[in-house]
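Researcher: Please generate the 3D structure of the following complex. Treat every line as part of one assembly.
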Amino acid sequence: MTGRIRRDPRAERSRCLVPGGERPRLARDGNVAGMVVSRRPREATVRRIETPAFWVAAVVEAVDGGLDRWGRQLVGAARMLAGTDGGVVLIGLGDVAGNAAGEAGADRVLTVGGTDDPEAVPGVLMDLLGPFAPRHVLFAESRVGGDFARRVAARSGWPIQPGVEALNVRQGIRPCRGGRYERVAAVARVVTLPCDRVAPYAGEAREGRMLEAGPPPASPSARPVGGVVLGPVARAPAGAVPLSEAPFVVSAGQGVTDFETFHALARALGATEGASRVVCDAGLMPRAAQVGASGTVLDARCYLAFGIAGAPQHLQGLGKVEHVVAVNTDLHAAIIARAGLSIVADAQAVMPALLALLREEGA
Amino acid sequence: MRSIVLLSGGIDPLSGRPAPPQGEIAAIGLARSIGGAAEGLHAGGPSPALRLAAAHGLARVDCLDGGGNAVEALATYLATYLGADPPDLVLAGRQARGGEDSGMLPYLLAERLGWPLLAGVIAVGAAADGWLSVMIGLPQGARQEARVRLPCILVAHDAAPAPPFIFDRARRAELRVVPVAGPAPVAAEGAAEGDDRPYRARPRLIGASARTGAGQVLDHPDIAEAATVLRDHLRALGVLGPSRGASPDA
Ligand SMILES: Cc1cc2nc3c(=O)[nH]c(=O)nc-3n(C[C@H](O)[C@H](O)[C@H](O)COP(=O)(O)OP(=O)(O)OC[C@H]3O[C@@H](n4cnc5c(N)ncnc54)[C@H](O)[C@@H]3O)c2cc1C
Ligand SMILES: Nc1ncnc2c1ncn2[C@@H]1O[C@H](COP(=O)(O)O)[C@@H](O)[C@H]1O
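Model: Done. Output below.
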């Protein structure tokens, strides 16, 4: 027996892949051997931190009772800023489940409901954040998140870095001076992040412990609120939303011949109509409905495709869509590889069946 | 109704030439849609971009000379110089273009004046009993009604209808320099820390949204079953309302 350590070439190779293993790691210096460090097998544990050295807060809007992509990216950014010593507290505007938040990288979770009055927001958020004395507070640069962040910054006097496009522990970079320059500065106390700028957390799940918000302290500094009364939100009628903004698009391709049912179904679903290029070329749908590289790039949450093959030029229009649903007779169509739910069936049969189901419910 | 539109005097991001930001043009549109007098107000010296903004419908722009930082200068001007004839409404754009571009100024001003602020305003309605009804533009074409107590600050939605550019107005617009006590105005946020360098476009994360690999596949299912699965899936995604049935016009 020699004392030589046996090599495991397979393990070595897998360590040269990014986590998840879809592609090799980028090794700029070409030193792949240096990366071959022995790694303990990953145990499915939850990482806890009892008394972190400091806190980083992420204020996240809950979408349908969970975190969406943007929300996970915010928590991921907070986790990155917290490093190993810090803790991440997620302030959920709406209900956020603890385990989902933990997987996204949060150590503590606090939820607030009823933030109807934008004037009251800074007071509520600062009361919640007060006990944590967070080093950074992260918001989404969305309509609501950006508004809340600026209100909090204006009230507290904390420096703010809005619309940060690149973020690491040392610095944040944001465009300024008309977008012709970018400012590189240390990460400010309040930061807002646009979508898809920071990767979500991919490490070991964190605890995500749900905390109870303490009773609101009667702060003497609280200004009288009530200068704003918000009314109900009116969702735009499907026909009136431009295709590029529509949240839900139903689209027809070459596989659709029964356009009457298609239009009726789109109306019953409350969805905006789209189409592939071939259908628009044939004059079966207006040009404005074309989805894809030479048509409209969607910002929808859900895309329902009937009889669309999923050509690359078409899929380019779906870059931002989170959920694709496909109905196609061909199991090997490219769209099926992109879809979260695929139904391999004739569109002319599925459309009326779904329409009947919706009408039945309405009756 | 007397409204004042805050103008930052900006540049065009592409050419670098003076041009007012879209949001401020939208703010002028909102001010004009209310009716009554509308004037521009700028903390800083007269600049060509102000004249171009005025071409969208302002007869006069007051440029504040002095007053400390921009928020202080504006607040002092609104409180003191307009004390006898105060505005009911102050409108601003979402973000300046050419300076700090943080969109903080209206918020700081609202905080300083103690006025209510509402952002994302896409249309204004009528005023009654000291309250103004407005329409807020939300993403994906949704709208929200709101009422706000006057006087207030409204931040215009970039997509609020913009009034046309009229060259003659640009020529006639009066840029009035108003001396205000204090040093020359500086950016609202004070001396910014950090280094400026030419902008470098950074790609967004790729594949952040696209799922890899196919999801659930139903191969030649029973049609009725497929329809049920489809409906339940859409409902779970939250794009289909909960069993509200067909929409009224179906
Ligand atoms: C420069 C350039 C730009 C382009 N830009 C665009 C663009 O912006 N947008 C765009 O869409 N295209 C674009 N195209 C065209 C694109 O390459 C494809 O030709 C087009 O998207 C195909 O449309 P389709 O999927 O509807 O048709 P097809 O490729 O004919 O696919 C029809 C699909 O329907 C299925 N099917 C057939 N019968 C049924 C049935 N009864 N029930 C259910 N499914 C059925 C078939 O299995 C097939 O998968 C572009 C092409 C070029 C060269
Ligand atoms: N110097 C200024 N004078 C008057 N209004 C300003 C000035 N700077 C910014 N504003 C207003 O505040 C908005 C947001 O600007 P900013 O906070 O600089 O991004 C702008 O769209 C203007 O309406």
